[in-house]
Amino acid sequence: MPEAAEDSRAVRIQGVEFAYPGADRPLLAGLDLALERGELAAVLGPSGVGKSTLLNLVAGLAVPRAGRVEVLGTEVTGLNESKAARWRRGSLGFVFQQFHLLPYLTVSENVALPLALNGQRWEEEAVRSFLERLGLGEQAASYPRHLSGGQAQRAAIARALIHRPPVLLADELTGNLDEETAVAVMDLLVEAVEELGTTTLVVTHAPEVASRSHTRYRLSHHRLHREP
Ligand SMILES: Nc1ncnc2c1ncn2[C@@H]1O[C@H](COP(=O)(O)OP(=O)(O)OP(=O)(O)O)[C@@H](O)[C@H]1O
């Protein structure tokens, strides 16, 4: 990635310290990260090291006890709950490890949800063609309980990208997918990053995700280390 000016940072984390209540030691400490706009960055590291927690900090779903988290000029740590919720709806797409699809909505309704919550108008057809790109055309009218793990993950990815958020956070993006689908999902992600300039932070163990990311960071000893 080319060197960019200071103000092009999409995500800036400075000196973050975080501990879960009751823990005797901080999980994250002295953690820094700076992502350029349009950067696709992978976060690697063993289970339990705090990767999901890092995504939650960027989303304002976890609050650090020291340090700053800034996303596109908004200081996430300074938002109250209702402002944080509104900011998340407009600015973030989030693919959770457990998908969090709403069981009483169809796949198509789940995917259109961010558009509805943001008060955006949309065409059924646009949602449909988005689902088709992710190989979910047949499942548009299905309920989440009828999906395989891989299909549910793709629905969660579609929901995270449908409103074209400037920032995408993804936990184990291709974790439940076979290799062919994982490559298709990565193609879509790389395309989104290139077309829309989506700044993306993806937690992964998958070599095909890490190798296609612009940058790689390893989380260990409470902080992030840039990898070659
Ligand atoms: N809500 C919570 N309350 C207390 N401890 C938690 C909570 N969530 C996570 N932890 C603990 O914090 C540590 C880091 O969890 P986290 O899920 O961030 O790790 P991770 O690197 O994403 O792991 P994995 O790769 O297994 O998903 C773990 O020891 C976990 O048990």
From TrEMBL:
SMART domains tied to this protein: AAA
GO molecular function, one term: ATP binding
Keyword Plastid: no
PROSITE patterns named in the record: ABC_TRANSPORTER_1, ABC_TRANSPORTER_2
Alphabetically ordered keywords of this record: ATP-binding, Nucleotide-binding, Transport
Presence of the UniProt keyword ATP-binding in the record: yes
Residue ranges annotated for the ABC transporter domain, each copy included: 11-228
Chain segments annotated as coiled-coil in the UniProt record: none
PANTHER family reported for this sequence: IMPORT ATP-BINDING PROTEIN, TRANSPORTER, PUTATIVE-RELATED
Protein name (Swiss-Prot/TrEMBL): ABC transporter ATP-binding protein
UniProt source species: Thiohalorhabdus methylotrophus
